[in-house]
Design goal:
By secondary structure, the chain is an alpha+beta fold. It has one domain: Beta-Lactamase. It contains three helices and seven strands, in the order αββαβββαββ. The strands form two sheets. A five-stranded antiparallel beta sheet has the order 2-1-5-4-3, sandwiched between helices. The N terminus is likely disordered. InterPro entries: Mycobact_SerProt_Inhib_Rv3364c (IPR053141), Roadblock/LAMTOR2_dom (IPR004942). This is Roadblock/LC7 domain-containing protein.
Amino acid sequence: MTMPRANFDWMLKDLADGVPGVQQVVVLSADGLRIARYGGDPDAADRIAAACAGLQSLAGAVATEIATGDGRMRVVIIEIQGGYFYMMEAGPNAYLAVLANAVAEPGMMSNRMRDLVARIGSHLTSPPRRNGQTV
């Protein structure tokens, strides 16, 4: 089932409007393709999605080192000069990423992202691809 684009955009806007300081929200596939975005420009969203593919791979590799874990990355928070970057697993083969300025409160952001994923996580998915084709 595919969620209508307008509804999807509204939900991303709701996340952005609900936390002060959000600059861009991106939904991406595990292989780094942008699925949807809110805020910022499309080229920046594409760059963020591509970078997230590598970041989720690295986070997953680290996650396998935790003996009691399941080896899956759940959330990554990076504090950078002037703001924060957040990435969260959003469904099978899909991730939710947010760029925010220093005004954003990390706890609030994580909670709002989790709420969004819980409400629409089954719609934030990307089918696996092989050789550039959907499997």
